[in-house]
Amino acid sequence: MRIASDNSHALRWLARGKLNLHLRVLRRRDNGFHDILSWMQPIDWGDELTLRPAAHGDDVRLICKPAGLPTGDDNLIVRAARRLAALTGRSAGVTIHLVKRLPIGGGLGGGSADAAATLLGLARLWGLKRDDPRIVAAAESIGSDVPFFLGTGAAIAGDRGTALTRPPRAFAGWSVLALPPYGVPTGAVYARCRPTGMAADEALPWEAPWHGAAELSARLRNDLAPAAFAVEPRLAALHSMIDGLEGVAVHMSGSGSTLFALFDSEADARRWTALAATECRRALATDGAAGPRFRPARLLDEPACVVAG
Length: 309
What we know:
By secondary structure, the protein is an alpha+beta fold. It has helices at residues 76-88, 110-126, 133-142, 146-149, 186-192, 213-217, 225-231, 233-242, 266-284, and strands at 11-28, 34-53, 60-65, 94-99, 155-158, 163-165, 174-179, 251-252, 259-263, 293-298, 305-307.
């Protein structure tokens, strides 16, 4: 089936990133995947995709900004479009423009969010319902985080990340993202991680009420952090630089490289942003190393992928 080009059918989607507030790695499966337990929430910052039915051809054409990003099967957007086309018996026939803002290898799920937005955008173009099981099947075949980005907001991810349930309460506050000028390869981090399992009576951070960001932050952990710091020592150094600054705990999202801290208000987040940026400039001034960018971001309890405008 070929879809005629029609600019009125162009769809613009926001593909927001996520934070892993809490991440436990429980065990490694024989197939190489890991069973995890993670609390994830979308943030109010992400990529932007515009999908248009193609005038000619049945394949996926991906145009990226900035230029130079991969546009073939190694890009999850292309894989998502082709997979959904195969499952629905359609020709993909779509041109997708990507404005990339989320860092690659940053632990914010940017590639997975882009794939989910692609699936939802194509479903809209092709008249599929959002809960069509073929969309979920395509998402699960592409990557462990992709089903989360199809969802409605905060989630507890189990299994290899694809079994999703709602937490009793989402964190309604702000974060400050510390974004280093480098990524961390997810595969290398998981390969170095040594799962320790979880006690049956282990307290989970979302199970009990909390009063403020500081109290919640004290309960959080990420089992991938030691492995990520070993793979990328510069990340370990950055964490040491800002963790505990003004008494604020700093955590890592996913497999890195993004670090984050939690705050109750935007004002607190912006004040700490300025302090952390100053501390990094001071600490890195002697060796001339490139420092991180700091960005306040609000945590959301709403869909990560939404139609823009």
